[in-house]
Structures are given as C-alpha cells and as structure tokens.
Amino acid sequence: MKTVKTILLATTCLIANIAFSQNYIPYYPTEWDFRNQVDLIDFSHVKSLTTKEIAVEENKEFPILETYLKWNNTYQLTDYQLVNYNNSYADFDIRFNYADAYSKKIKSVKIINPNTLKPIEEWQYTYGSFDVEKINVKRYLLNVPDPDVFEVKYQGNDDDYTQETVHSPQNKKMKQTKHWYKSNKEGTTIRIKKIYLDDVLDQTDSLLLGKNGNKLEKTVTNLGISSLTKYHYKTRKVNVAGDEFEYQDLEKIQVDGKDKERFEYAFDTKGNWIERKNYKIKNGKWEFSTITRRTIEYRN
Q1: So what's the pLDDT on residue 187?
Q2: Which residues of the chain fall below pLDDT 70?
Q3: Domains of the chain in sequence order
Q4: Nearest alpha carbon to residue 253 among 231, 279, 282, 275
Q5: 3-state secondary structure the chain
Q6: What per-residue confidence (pLDDT) applies to 242?
Q7: Residues facing residue 98 across a β-bridge
Q8: Beta partners for residue 94, in sequence order
Q9: Which end of the chain is more exposed for a tag (fewer CB within 10 A), N or C?
Q10: Rg (CA), the chain
C-alpha cells in the first residue's frame, strides 16, 4: 500500500495547493489546454468526456481524480468539472458563457463548489482592440459577506505578444505573465512564458509545439536551474468520415535525458483511447503506476 499512499498523498498535495491558491485554470483562454488540446480524433462527434485516474495496488483500484468536459450543440465547451477523491475541498465545477452561440470568445466564467453549490469565483471578460483587455474577478471567501474584487489586465498585439497583470483588491500588482509566440518555417511553434512575482522574474517556460499542436519539448527555468522535458509520440492510422489520417498518441516522456513515463493504450471502435496504462521508471526498470479510463459520450 505504500506506493498507492505515496501517489494519493502527492496528488492531494498538488490539488490542494492549486485550490487554495485559487489557480483553478489560467485566466487567459489561450492557455486552456483542457479546451484547446483535447485528445480526441474527431472532436465534433463528442458530447462529453469523463476521465478517471486510478492507482492500482495488489489488484485493487483506488480512484484519485476525475474530470468531466461537456460541449453544447455548437461545439462550445460549457462545463469543466474536477473531483478529487482524496480532498473534496479541491473539487470544482466551472461553467463557461460565450459572446454568442457560435463564438469561442468567452463572456464570463463561473467557478462553483459542487458540494455546496456556492460560487467560488466569477470572471467577467472585456475585449479591446486585439483580444481580452481585462477580466473583472469576484472571489468569494469563507465566512466573509462580500467577495474580494480585483482585475486582471492585458496588453499586447494581434501577432506574437501578450502581457497579463493580476492586481490585488487594493490595486497592487501581484503577478505578471509575459507571453511570446513564434512560428517556425517547418510548422512548429515556440511559446515562451515569463512569470514575475512582485516585479521579480520567478520562472521562464519555453514550449515547442508540433504542426498538430502536440507538445514536443518544454524547458522550465527557475532560480537559474533549467529542466528539459521531451514528449515522444507513436503514429497510427485513423479513419475520419471515410478518409484516412495519421494520429499521434503520447508514448513516452523524458526529463533531462532520462526516461520518466511511458504509456500503453486501448481504443474504442471510433479510434479514441478509452484506457491508458502509465508506467514510471523505478530503480532503473519500468513499473506500472496508474491507469486512466475515459468514458466518451458521442453525438447521435
């Protein structure tokens, strides 16, 4: 049971930190990988997706996390839920409202505690000449009658740069994130993100994306120390509306030149994976770690 307890404790600490720091998802929609990089062959045929991560020890299963995504009839993501089986305080339910029925432009976001049905945060988006200009945030605190109200402001251009500044309710600059985007001739894209806390550079992320948007490499630099993660994929043939395409599944992750994780998949009749086994390196050998199962609700 030691392995399972370690996995559960690590996951609980991670999600608890996320929840109590109020960073449920990024403010800026471009950073929403859960919406923008959904690992589905033909997203237009999917109505909802439930993903459950499970630890396995001595042939017994122990659920860790569960997420739920739901799209409406015009393919807009309307609901994103997370359940932490080891810390209910980290559970959340996020509702998305759009500018119109067919747009990806977010009008507002509401984060709800699914256990009490009370609001946790409300975000109202205002758009300017190039993209999001500011977000008005209401944060509801326990046993406090009025919410904290603060703004997240943006500067940038239509092409390759965005600056996000998070202010406190007293209008003090708390956190600033600078994003750069660069497209290469071979079709890859580099995304660079610098995070400043109290005007001091805290972390730099450099992410290389492939032609299809898959992550290829990520370098994280913190306090002068860098770590490089590489993502390796296995290509297979899939059929979409009678046409054959190549699709890539994440096969292995390497960190600083050493194998870290690898994955094995089982697929449904439409070619989407519904089970993924996760193996991690331990004492120089691959060891089964967790299993992830997905339930996919397709449109008629």
Answers
A1: 92
A2: 1-22, 158
A3: 2-298 (2.40.160)
A4: 231
A5: CHHHHHHHHHHHHHHHHHHHCCCCCCCCHHHCHHHHCCCCCCHHHEEEEEEEEEEEECCEEEEEEEEEEEECCCCCEEEEEEEECCCHHHCEEEEEEECCCCCCCEEEEEEECCCCCCEEEEEEEEECCCCEEEEEEEECCCCCCCCEEEEEEEEECCCCEEEEEEECCCCCEEEEEEEEEEECCCCCEEEEEEEEECCEEEEEEEEEECCCCCEEEEEEEECCEEEEEEEEEEEEEEEECCEEEEEEEEEEEEECCEEEEEEEEEECCCCCEEEEEEEEEECCEEEEEEEEEEEEEECC
A6: 83
A7: 106
A8: 80, 111
A9: C
A10: 20
Tokens 């033909």 correspond to what residue? 42
Q: How far apart are CA 167 and CA 179, in angstroms?
A: 18
Q: Which residue has the tokens 């990806």?
A: 104
The structure tokens listed for 147 are: 């919410």
Identity of the amino acid at 83: V
- Name the one residue in this structure whose structure tokens are 């393919």: 75
